[in-house]
């Protein structure tokens, strides 16, 4: 990575520096390689460390770099493509499902989810916590809400709690006929619990995908999936049937 003169550049120094480092990432570094420390980089480019940090933070936000505790700043792998079209006609927990379930509890869902499920006020649902991992790193966290009426044969004796109950709920969902599903996508900020599971700071930018699953003329389950915006890119397949939400407005993806 060579040096460059930044004094006469009209853009903010950190922005031009970000472009220079970005070009070097494409030509001089490989995925997973550790960058030189901040002191060496700042000296090499003749900038203050504060300017360097701004450039590195922008590259991290764009998914080009990853800051790993105890390791340093590394070159990030390409963003993982996540198909959020509704052409995949399957329940959560099916054979092609990439999520890993780790917990399940009975809890009252958020009001918006309760409305979608048409459950009674304060009615508890099975709430599953799931993770999606890529290159050994968590890239998405999901909550799956399933009312008891969708899995009436679920036995508390067979699945008392935690991951065992999660597997039992998913197994019971497979018994239902899936009529269809729809999805909405919006930009959001990571909540404390999602941030902890995704190894991010609370408030970090995320993509939130809400999916409703229909069976027998009603909503049988709802998922809220939170994807790291720095490591994921959402794809819409060929159907263009995903709703993209922003500031309360929705439009059909094309």
From TrEMBL:
SUPFAM superfamilies: Chorismate lyase-like (SSF64288), Winged helix' DNA-binding domain (SSF46785). CDD domains: WHTH_GntR. Residues 11-78 form the HTH gntR-type domain. Keywords: DNA-binding, Transcription, Transcription regulation. InterPro entries: Bact_HTH_transcr_reg, Chorismate_lyase_/UTRA_dom_sf, Tscrpt_reg_HTH_GntR, UTRA, WH-like_DNA-bd_sf, WH_DNA-bd_sf. The keyword Transcription regulation applies. Gene3D superfamilies: Chorismate lyase-like, Winged helix-like DNA-binding domain superfamily/Winged helix DNA-binding domain. It holds the Pfam family GntR. This is GntR family transcriptional regulator. It comes from Streptomyces katsurahamanus.
